[in-house]
Amino acid sequence: MKKIFVLDTNVLLHDPQSLYAFDDNEVIIPAIVLEELDSKKRLADELGRNARSVSRLLDRMREQGHLHEGIALPGGGLLKVELNHRSFVRVHEMFGEMSNDNRILAVALNYQMEQENAEEKRSVVLVSKDVLVRIKADVLGLEAQDYLSDRMVDHSEFYTGNVTLHVHPSVIDEFYSYRFLSVGHLNLRDRLNPNEFVILRDEMGTSKSALLKVSQDGVRLEPLYLSNDPVWGITARNAQQRMALELLLNDDIPLVTLSGKAGTGKTLLALAAGLLKVEDEHKYKKLLIARPVVPMGKDIGYLPGEKEEKLRPWMQPIYDNLEFLFDTKKAGDIDKILMGMGSIQVEALTYIRGRSIPGQFIIIDEAQNLTKHEVKTIVSRVGEGSKIVLMGDPGQIDHPYLDSVSNGLTHIVEKFKRESISGHMTLEKGERSKLAQHAADLL
């Protein structure tokens, strides 16, 4: 049965293409949503761009007819801008002040009351990224849901970048004899992805095992090329860190994604690999390290000083790791080192947009706070001969309208997992300290 979907402003600001995401159902945009979009269209950040995109889409639709009467959508549905549903009595009784959110709730509620007397009743659903709006809708007896079309996977289906297989010991012996295995030889039900890691364990219960990586063409299982030697003084402390370093130091994989809780070593491993590639091997001209000033695109504010001084509080986690790698003893030493080297740049993501970045080792920290469009913007800046590493913890998000399954990091992991130019690793074991590991697990 067809439904009526009433869209909150934040859905359109999150994904302008959401207008087309409801198949053959009716999509309602309350008039107050247009006013909110108008107030955002001059912003220079992601919200402003999306507001302008929605405005252009609606303007093109206007050429087909009057928006308040309804415009046919490609999927068979109907788009309508609401102008007449302005009875706020019930909402006003429940919540008092008629805020913009309450006006949107009133529109959905009036549509629901209309449907109660309709010959062919349709359910009315309010779609909002705002949790409190959805709670208010529930109090009013309205069906409400989050915008789910941009969610890549369920929690249980997150791609981890590695898999453990229990095989007959003869299979492990064959690998050690020939130094490779055919993927087809394993008779797997699920497909292995290029650059995915495989841990073979003896199904008979012995300690016999092997650590392999799927080739870039996806047809062979090969040994890891790297030994467990230190990288800028950093040695992998567990199998997943070793797999991560394999990806980070492989020049044939220009896109690497790392995810994991705090203290699993994501930033430290990426920085160590970048320093090795830039300073020792001279594979890249510069090491560029950036993280979002959450939310991305906002002004860095009225903190005192020049740009570098303003950025320092946001970038301090990066400097902490650099101080560890350079083994500095005094405050301020790391600034002198970076100034003298000239090949390491710590930057806010705000200043990356619009650039072309060739021949650099690029590290993007806290990528879970980026939208899928922001991630696209950043990765599309990568020039010839560059390598980019995106990392973060999908379970620790500061963005108001993102969650663990709709953020930019999860999006790019899922979109690129079958591509030969990318590799992913989920780090699970904390190595910062026993206290840090317990905090990440228990709190």
Description:
The chain is of the alpha/beta class. It has 14 helices and 17 strands. The strands form 3 sheets. A 6-stranded mixed beta sheet has the order 3-4-2-1-5-6. The protein has a 6-stranded parallel beta sheet with strand order 14-13-15-16-12-17, sandwiched between helices. A 5-stranded mixed beta sheet has the order 7-9-10-11-8. Helix 12 links the parallel strand 15 (360-364) and strand 16 (387-392). Helix 2 packs across helix 3, helix 4 crosses helix 5 and helix 12 packs across helix 13. The two termini are 43 Å apart. One of its GO terms (cellular component) is cytosol.
Topology:
Blueprint: E1 3-7, H1 9-14, E2 26-30, H2 31-40, H3 46-62, E3 71-72, E4 78-82, H4 89-95, H5 100-116, E5 123-127, H6 131-139, E6 143-145, E7 162-167, H7 169-178, E8 181-182, E9 197-202, E10 209-214, E11 220-223, H8 239-248, E12 255-260, H9 266-280, E13 286-291, H10 307-326, H11 333-341, E14 344-348, E15 360-364, H12 372-379, E16 387-392, H13 408-416, E17 422-427, H14 434-442
Parallel strand pairs: 1-2, 1-5, 2-4, 5-6, 7-9, 12-16, 12-17, 13-14, 13-15, 15-16
Antiparallel strand pairs: 3-4, 8-11, 9-10, 10-11
Helix pairs in contact: 2-3, 4-5, 8-9, 9-10, 12-13
